[in-house]
Specification:
Number of strands: 2
Radius of gyration: 20 Å
Structural class: mainly alpha
Largest sheet: 2 strands, antiparallel
Shape: globular
Helix content: over 70%
Length: 278
């Protein structure tokens, strides 16, 4: 029994390493996950320099205090929600998930590999963004707020990983998954204080941002770097919203996710390839 539990953990770890290798072999995915948000940080820091960002009800932020945490969160959401959703949908279209289920390996180890790899890449992206902020733009972090920062990352990454699986469940095929991912995450980023500090937006934009989890992830992360927020800076209200979305995403994925290609273009393409291969 003990050997069995150990062996499944080893299998899951091997899946994490395998999915990591696949990620690094896709330079475009690595660019949009790690380099794209960093490029925006450098651009905003150059454009706005030493300007202060005044947000009613939240205080004054330097450019680094506002954008480094916000873009770190955007990178973490891209590494989990976007990458997990798209890659899982494509793997299903290619028949990889169906073949994996035909092996003696437990199905959950595959999903554990996907999620573990996504969370690890998200951690790397956040570390890079915060590291550049600290080294180049005088971003400071009170050590007393570090537990709140780590808890926020854990809850936020788990939330968006679950939503990534929900995205794979709702996508009819691998071709449509990138469109669905970008059509959802990019508009949300604009109403969630990622690219723009929304000082006095229309009420409906405020409500829209408050409904979805990205804004809560951003604000909880920014609070950890805001000097006017006293430690330990646990943002329990924001964490509760993210946890609720994570549970909802996981339940949706459990109910609607399929391991076999859908009877759509992906399934038809797979059948055509099989017929062509004889």
């Amino acid at each position: 029994m003990v050997e069995g539990r150990v062996s499944t953990r080893v299998l899951a770890w091997q899946q994490v390493r395998y999915q990591n290798r696949l990620f690094w072999r896709t330079p475009l995915a690595a660019f949009f996950t790690l380099a794209f948000p960093l490029m925006f940080l450098l651009l905003f820091a150059t454009l706005f320099g030493t300007e202060k960002i005044e947000i009613p009800g939240r205080g004054t932020f330097s450019v680094a205090q506002f954008y480094a945490p916000a873009l770190a969160v955007f990178a973490a959401a891209t590494a989990t929600y976007t990458n997990i959703g798209i890659q899982t949908a494509i793997a299903r279209d290619q028949g990889i998930l169906k073949r994996f289920r035909g092996t003696p390996l437990p199905s959950w180890t595959y999903m554990a590999g996907r999620i573990g790899s996504g969370v690890w890449i998200a951690f790397l992206a956040v570390a890079i963004m915060v590291g550049v902020g600290v080294l180049a733009y005088d971003l400071t972090l009170d050590p007393a707020k570090l537990p709140a920062l780590l808890l926020t990352f854990a809850v936020g990454a788990a939330c968006f990983a679950a939503l990534g699986l929900a995205l794979a469940a709702v996508a009819p095929n691998g071709d449509s998954a990138p469109a669905i991912a970008n059509a959802t995450i990019l508009p949300l980023a604009f109403v969630s204080d990622v690219f723009i500090a929304m000082g006095d937006p229309p009420q409906w934009l405020t409500i829209l941002g408050n409904i979805f989890p990205l804004k809560h992830f951003v604000r909880a992360f920014q609070d950890a770097f805001q000097p006017t927020v006293d430690p330990p800076a646990f943002a329990w209200d924001h964490l509760a919203v993210m946890a609720a979305w994570g549970v909802a995403g996981a339940l949706f994925a459990i109910r609607f996710f399929t391991w076999e290609p859908r009877e759509s273009s992906g399934g038809r393409r797979l059948r055509r390839r099989k017929i062509a291969a004889g």
